[in-house]
Amino acid sequence: MKGPLFYAKILLFGEYGIIKDSKGLAIPFNSYKGALKSSKNLEGNAKKSNESLLGFYNYLSNLKTDLVSFDLESLKEDINEGLYFDSSIPQGYGVGSSGALVASIYDKYAINKITVLENLTRDKLLKLKNIFSVMESFFHGKSSGLDPLNSYLSLPILINSKDNLEPAGIPSQKEGKGAVFLLDSEQIGETEPMVNIFMNKMKNEGFRKMISEEFATYTDACIDDFLKGDVKSLFGNVKQLSKLVLHNFKPMIPNTFHKVWEDGIQTNDYYLKLCGSGGGGYILGFTEDYEKAKKSLENYKLELVYNF
User: Fold this and answer.
1) Structural domain that includes position 261
2) What values do phi and psi take at 17, rounded to 5?
3) From CA 71, how far away is CA 203, in angstroms rounded?
4) Would you say the pTM of this structure is higher than 0.85?
5) What is the CATH number of the domain that holds 245?
6) Statement to judge: residues 211 and 301 lie in one domain
7) 172 inside domain
8) Pair (102, 240) in one structural domain
9) In this structure, are 124 and 154 located in the same domain?
10) In degrees to the nearest 10, what's the CA dihedral of 123, 124, 127, 129?
11) Interval 7-66: pLDDT, tens
12) 201-251 pLDDT, tens per residue?
């Protein structure tokens, strides 16, 4: 058995802001993917995945929700037969490894599922997001449902607010010098502790004010610029966002990258921002000159996401 492929995702803008109802923009990232497979002789990662699926099955069996129901009998049978999620998506890296798994389980086992081929009205998108939020909470404690939604639809998604999502047309890539890239911190990041730090910070009035005024304003501006293809304005706003994140989200940035982050702002060779919840995994980079950024960051592993 070999299921359809589900891809990684990158939240270009909106990390943490979307928890508090500001805008976000997520795009599929096709370099990493996963699919459901089955094997009689499970070992290593396949065995771990199979055990994790059993835990997920138990969680879904006890779900009290009218949003969705599953063919739990088939799922249990397949797990017993050696079902696992074969994935190249790195875990704890902020690119949606659990999202792709959730999307694959929904696709195969949900009863009366909403399919990708339907006319995806705002209501259907919202319902899918809510279903995925409930499902993915098994992995993260609290989930927006956005990662699985992105993986399931394989479309860029614009989050206007919690209750207002739409598929987004992003400008096609150009052969320009500018780029969005991933910087590998070579550390694993855990989502739940990072979200907890954020929620604690939100108890502070000054921090709340910064999120609703500055953070949301720059995030929204970056999204508008990106969708319009206004590269000049985009880099100005990304620089402000990078500064804001460095000063207010230090616990989410691995210590060894504080100086690297600052250097990018000082030299204008690149600007860094969180990719997902932070704490490790990938850091997202924006540069007007990818070759220059590669030289400045020659000691690190970079991966190209998008060209301007």
Assistant:
1) 179-307
2) -60, -35
3) 42
4) yes
5) 3.30.70.890
6) yes
7) no
8) no
9) yes
10) -110
11) 999 999 998 887 777 799 999 999 999 999 999 999 999 999 999 999 999 999 999 999
12) 999 999 999 998 899 999 999 999 999 999 999 999 999 999 999 999 999
